[in-house]
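Endonuclease-reverse transcriptase
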Amino acid sequence: MEDITKILKSIQLELAEQKKDMKEIEIHITNNINKNINEHFKIIEHKYDQLNEQIQNQEKILDSMERHNRKKNLVFFGIEEGEKSYQELENKIFKFLNEVNIPCERNEIEAVKRLGRNKEKPRPITVTFTTIGKKNIITKSEK
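Predicted structure tokens:
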């Protein structure tokens, strides 16, 4: 009986030791998994920061380009409406510029459009010139 008790106790001690070893292995595996996850998370976070920085730089470039393009715009007020197409609106602008003795050719205008909704009074017209220089010539000649 004592032999059986000793054998049972030794088995019990071995099981406790194995349980302790298993717990240590579990902790070790958990730590390794957490370490790997943290490393991958840091890599992803770094890439996110880089992408965010690139987006901010792209936004600055776009803002700069947009400001530069707007510098070529000139707004005309008081030109009567009635045009039915883009071509007619463009012709109105050329006619107006000729009336005030400002030479302008078709290749010097990039775009022409009316602003706002149609109301009782004529809407302003935004004209985008191909160069800032042409816009400056027109602005200076009107004064």
